[in-house]
Amino acid sequence: MTYRGALVSPASVASLAPVVLGLALGLLATDAAAEGEKIDGYPSWAERVHLELTNRARVDPQVEMDQCGDNCTEAACYEVKPPLYLSRKNSRAARFHAAHMEKLGYFGHTSKCTLAPDIGDTWENGCDGAASCSCVGGEPVCNPSCTNPQGRVGLFGGGYFGEIIAGGSSPNQAFYLWLYESAGGNDACMFTQDNGHRWLLLTSNGGVGFGVDGYHVGDFGSADADEKGKIASGAHWPRAGNTVEAWANWYDQAAPSQALINVDGSCEAMSLGRGAAANGAYKAEVTGVGQGCHRYYFVFEDSEGNKVTYPSTGSLGIGAEGACEDWTEERPPLGPGCDCAPSCGGKECGDDGCGGSCGDCGPGESCDGSMCVCAPACDGKACGDDGCGGVCGTCAVDQVCSDGACVDGGDTGGMCAPDCAGKACGDDGCGGSCGSCDGGLVCSDGACVSGDGTTGGSGTGGSGTDGGATGSSASASGGSASATGSASDSGQALPDGYGDGAEDGGCACHASRNNDLGGAALLLTTLFGIRRRGASTRRG
To answer: CA-CA distance, 3 to 268, in Å (whole number)?
Structure first.
């Protein structure tokens, strides 16, 4: 593991050895285009996958944090967020930077030269990213300074908030190298040199443009106005295979009344895979598509019965690169299964048969089949009341249950010994009750109290209770914490099927806007290389 860091000017970071991760932060702007369509070559299949993986992670980040394990020591910081939407200008800037790094043999956020002021016009219109057409003077030199990320994105007309870069043979692998990077033991809820990629993916607002051409780049900024549809993103992976996963992210004030995927003219229901019904990632497993090219698009209906499709026109393609276009104007007809009638008779919750929901359960409940039932609360408990009239377990013959834990307490024949000493109400530790409260009082820590927390005079029922028990209140004050440290390679595994055996290393940098300096950006750059390197497969 090597590490170095400094407060530098944008010109001072010109190049890096071709390792495989990185990021940077800065400002914002807007753009416009049609939802999900491929326009002037953007986005590609891999770039769609990056956006969908990002939005899928944002609807329930703790799913990913559980998988991340010890690498994500600040896991508790991440909460549910709205989706990020596509920024096409940032996508062009990102793909250019990916190609530029590949062609000029470097890895870093700052370009390896002073970029030509017209690169936003010439890129892919005669210029392939080579120094001869992308750099001032046609040479990979800083003249007088190399172009920083914010300046580069600005040349493409986009706004800039941050950037992440990676190497890797697939978008899934690159994404999880970003998401599962080690926080170095730091649990502070803030952008750090160690968790920066993950922080940008899970906490940024607005839009992002991903670009893939050899390397993988994400430039965060503002979303395109016409990309802010109720289906924020959608994609499938792997690109070709007999069975693929298709995911689409829905974001609206209410759940969709229907969620379908139309493949080659036949529809099947999608199910909520992650998140909540109104801000969730919907999933379908598509089988029998191992040969040829298969066209598909997502067909949802909102709560008012309005049909919403993604992409808004045309269709996406399942099939080998070069043999199956990832987007065309061709649109499969609405055939079998596409006129789905929701069925919620006698159901309180669960799937309505069309990818929608029959309802949500309340706090402390879960959906069992189609009915809302009490959800047992036994986390951290070896015994005692599960909150639903059952028990979380029984203790050995020489133990008793105390506050959910089995402790030594003599020979009880394996039976739980109720413990109501000092309690007027509440759990007796064995699934029973120490009493209930009268006169509108509520039970708090074994005492009957009023809604304002003052102790009530009596409790009723329950064996072993003390009617004179008093309640107590507690308060806690919050604060903030920060820490510094170097990153380490913990060998965190990628999810099954997302890696390809390649090993990669990384770098990170952070620039933030300083409002006290009239918007001038300070660039705090931290560059580190991990002792791993893998091949990156170039995409055309």
So the answer is: 50
